[in-house]
């Protein structure tokens, strides 16, 4: 077992109607001028934005608004937010949406706290943040886990780079999670979210090195819960209990709970997907599903004990076969699960067809973004990254 530090400072307010507490909570955390940041149309159409505004007004808190955040959020929108927030004297960032909106809000919060620097320096990893304004979230999709995570992922469209910056400074002060808010999601988004939640758990699970039994059991519990409830939501999108299970799983999958005591996680699949997102603008969770089984087949022999455990404890593969057979059955069962919820298992099903040149470009981009070889189940060199992309075509 490795030594670890667990830091989950985000206060979680979970359940029906909780968005009406937004104003009271912002006030408690010292916000007096809020930037309400949101996405395309969903929060407007559902009336959520109006409810959040009413709650702020009831608490006597003034605000400005900025919508238009797109999935794989753009640096240009971050810059627009920085300019608006500076002019308005914003001291608190409130994200109403999913991972994209929360990540964009985190980026704006960093920039406002240290206005003398260019924000992209953080994402280019040429500088570390020293300060960040407070951020909070009213979550509308269970997926990225940004509501409790230390991460923010922004896409620089001009360079085609999708890059993450991770720092505890930006962990949200509070996250309002009302599972009812996710009922309006299209099935593809719900299921992409489930794929992402599972992947956050699996990135921490498929490691070589120290492991804790409790951490493994928590991880397996998260995975089994998401598999069960993703299938329920595929048939019954308005099932509140299933929405709630998935929403809570989404936060626990990426607040580091399922990684305590392990070797720090693999995260190669995420790095590989981020390049696909930067180049082809794919939905993050679906992109992960499309690449995972190719990654798994490429690396499983280097981390066989974990793949066997996964097959038996998560995918309920019958014991009795050889370790290799069991591991492969687990991977196949996972592909069957993805298909059953309408998720892709390769890039063709995802709707992209990268050329050999694009594969090399993504592999090199992934290698650069990772700062060298990446992975724990198997340490991937740049040629391994290209090989995984080729397998996933
Ligand atoms: O823009 P609107 O109209 O709101 O539509 C959104 C968007 O099109 C829609 N949506 C969200 N809530 C809805 C809804 N539609 C109907 N009803 C609702 N209640 O869903 C679409 C996707 O939203 P988005 O915020 O992009 O989803 P997600 O939470 O999956 O976030 C994806 C982004 O997060 C990054 C991903 O790379 C991607 O850029 N990630 C962030 C992480 C983090 N900060 O910790 C970790 C992840 O690994 C991930 O990389
Ligand atoms: Zn993810």
Task: Give the arrangement of secondary structure elements.
Blueprint: E1 11-14, H1 22-28, E2 33-38, H2 42-45, H3 48-58, E3 62-66, H4 75-88, E4 92-97, H5 99-113, H6 120-123, E5 135-139, E6 151-156, E7 161-166, E8 174-177, H7 187-205, H8 213-235, H9 240-254, H10 268-280, H11 284-299, H12 304-313, H13 323-340, H14 347-350, H15 356-370, H16 382-391
Parallel strand pairs: 1-8, 2-3, 2-4, 4-5, 5-8
Antiparallel strand pairs: 6-7
Helix pairs in contact: 1-3, 4-5, 7-8, 7-9, 7-11, 8-9, 10-11, 10-15, 11-13, 11-16, 12-13, 15-16
Bound molecules: 5,6-dihydroxy-NADP and zinc ion.
5,6-dihydroxy-NADP binds next to helix 2, helix 5, strand 6, helix 7 and helix 10.
Description of the structure:
With 393 residues, the protein is of the alpha/beta class. It has 2 domains: 11-181, 3-Layer(aba) Sandwich (Rossmann fold); 187-391, Dehydroquinate synthase-like - alpha domain (Dehydroquinate synthase-like, alpha domain), CATH 1.20.1090.10. It contains 16 helices and 8 strands. The strands form 2 sheets. The chain has a 6-stranded parallel sheet, with helices on both faces. The longest helix has 23 residues, at 213-235. The relative contact order is 0.11. The structure holds 5,6-dihydroxy-NADP and zinc ion. Residues 144, 196, 199-200, 270, 284 line the site of zinc ion (ZN).
Number of helices: 16
Question: Which CATH C-level class of the largest domain is it?
Answer: Mainly Alpha
CATH superfamily of the largest domain, by name, is Dehydroquinate synthase-like - alpha domain
**Helix-residue proportion:** 40-55%
Tell me the fraction of residues in β-strands, as a range: 5-15%
Poorly predicted regions are none
Could you say which structural class the secondary elements and strand pairing correspond to?
Answer: alpha/beta
Q: How many distinct domains?
A: 2
Architecture of the largest domain in CATH?
Answer: Up-down Bundle
The largest β sheet comes out as: 6 strands, parallel
């Amino acid at each position: 077992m490795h030594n670890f530090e667990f830091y989950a400072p985000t206060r979680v307010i979970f359940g029906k109607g909780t968005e009406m507490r937004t104003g009271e909570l912002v006030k408690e955390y010292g916000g007096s001028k809020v930037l309400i940041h949101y996405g395309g149309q969903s929060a407007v159409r559902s009336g959520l934005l109006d409810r959040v505004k009413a709650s702020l007004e009831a608490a006597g808190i003034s605000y400005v608004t900025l919508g238009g955040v797109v999935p794989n959020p753009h640096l240009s929108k971050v810059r627009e937010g920085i300019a608006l927030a500076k002019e308005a004297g914003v001291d608190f960032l409130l994200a109403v949406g999913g991972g994209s909106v929360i990540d964009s809000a985190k980026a704006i919060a960093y920039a406002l706290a240290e206005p003398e620097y260019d924000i992209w320096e953080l994402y280019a990893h040429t500088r570390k943040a020293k300060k960040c304004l407070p951020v909070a979230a009213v979550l509308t999709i269970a997926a990225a886990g940004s509501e409790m995570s230390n991460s923010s992922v922004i896409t620089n469209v001009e360079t085609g780079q999708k890059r993450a910056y991770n720092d505890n400074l930006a962990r949200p002060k509070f996250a309002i999670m009302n599972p009812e808010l996710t009922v309006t999601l299209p099935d593809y988004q719900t299921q992409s979210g489930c794929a992402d939640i599972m992947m956050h758990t699996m990135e921490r699970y498929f490691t070589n090195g120290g492991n804790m039994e409790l951490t493994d059991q928590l991880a397996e519990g998260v995975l089994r819960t998401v598999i069960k409830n993703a299938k329920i939501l595929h048939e019954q999108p308005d099932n509140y209990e299933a929405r709630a299970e998935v929403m809570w799983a989404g936060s626990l999958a990426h607040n580091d709970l399922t990684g305590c005591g392990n070797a720090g996680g693999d995260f190669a699949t995420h790095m590989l997907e981020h390049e696909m997102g930067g180049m082809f603008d794919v939905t993050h969770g679906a992109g992960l599903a499309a690449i995972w089984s190719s990654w798994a087949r490429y690396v499983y022999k280097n981390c066989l004990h974990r793949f066997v455990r996964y097959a038996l404890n998560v995918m309920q593969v019958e014991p009795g076969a050889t370790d290799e057979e069991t591991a492969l059955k687990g991977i196949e069962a996972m592909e069957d699960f993805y298909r059953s919820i309408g998720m892709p298992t390769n890039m063709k099903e995802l709707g992209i067809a990268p050329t050999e040149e694009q594969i090399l470009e993504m592999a090199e981009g992934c290698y650069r973004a990772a700062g060298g070889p990446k992975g724990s189940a198997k340490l991937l060199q740049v040629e391994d990254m290209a090989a995984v992309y080729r397998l996933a075509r």
